[in-house]
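#structure-requests
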Amino acid sequence: MRITNAQINAIMNSSLGINAAATGKLMQQMATGDRIIVPSDDPIASVRLLRIAREEANLNQYQSNIKALSGRLSAAETNLQAGSDTLLEIRDLLLWAANRGANSDEDLGSMAAELLTLEETFVSYLNVRDEEGRYYFSGTTTNQAAIAFDAALANPYSIQGNDGLRKVAVANDVFIEDNITARQILGGGAGFLNQLHELAQLMLNDPGNIGVAPNPDIGDVIGSLDKVLASLSSQITELGGRQNTLSLLKDSQADVSLANQKIEGELSSLDYAKASLDLANYQVALQATQKSYLKLHSLNLFDLM
């Protein structure tokens, strides 16, 4: 069987092309540090890398959610703690005011003025807003204040927000509530606020009728205040529990992400020692092919006669 020059050229060009392509790909791998340039380089590893990429995207979203949620819960906790401190100040004033024999009407009037200021301060904590202007304690109606006040009404205070709880995804099938409502904080309704306001007005304008039916008595208001304090304490504890859960999830997800990065490196990173050896072999093969081609191309039948 006679091999023509055209066949020799085709074979040599094909061999040169294969070696050149392999060398080029290897050099690209060495330049990028990636073993897998296209999925066909290692289909099984490529599928695993895609799964890891999807999981990492989910983890990044969860971590972002956790960070934002933790910030909102911290702000809510700070305001509830400040509200609790304010209620304790109000309680001290009420205990002082309850000692009727030691206080003149002028004394009660001065206490009432301070009570009204503390009352407004406490309500301001319930109507606090975040940096985007959304009310923390209004349930899902974050565009309106949690507590409304209308001086023209017999009971001026009312809960304006709803009882809706917002939930945030922080892990696969794990959701954590990101808010507490004013109704939860006050133990049901705005009764305590109205009771306190009415008492403060009596102390200021009509101290003689304090405790005279149907007017509130100082002891009754202290009792209502203690219930709100207990509710506040419970909600602060609940927020702390949520923060602990978020911290555990954050650490757990960081560990998973670290493991994913290790696996990803093992699957995709190039073994430079092996790659260098392969590159040397390809270059030797390429040089040998070129020499063979030149030698075959220069052969002449007359040289053998």
